[in-house]
Amino acid sequence: MLTAIRAKLDDRLVDDIATSMDITVPDGSIDERFMSLKACILAHAKYEESNRLR
To answer: Can you give the residue ranges of every domain in the chain?
Structure first.
């Protein structure tokens, strides 16, 4: 879903998404920030799913 809105992402939207998830995305180009945000979301989803199976 995040990749679907990739063309509309700007620094403010990345910051807003990160804030809503209580994570920090480091400064850099929008592409670097997008990849960092995506990695955080995937890691969060992975560990949320594994916690539910216990």
So the answer is: 1-52
What is the spatial distance between Cα 17 and Cα 8, in angstroms, rounded to a whole number? 13
d(CA 23, CA 19): 6
CA distance 35 to 13: 14
Distance CA 22, CA 40 (A): 11
* Confidence at residue 52, expressed as pLDDT on a 0 to 100 scale: 58
d(CA 38, CA 33): 8
Distance of CA 49 to the CA centre of its chain: 17
pTM, two decimals, is: 0.80
**The tokens 């480091």 sit on which residue?**
26
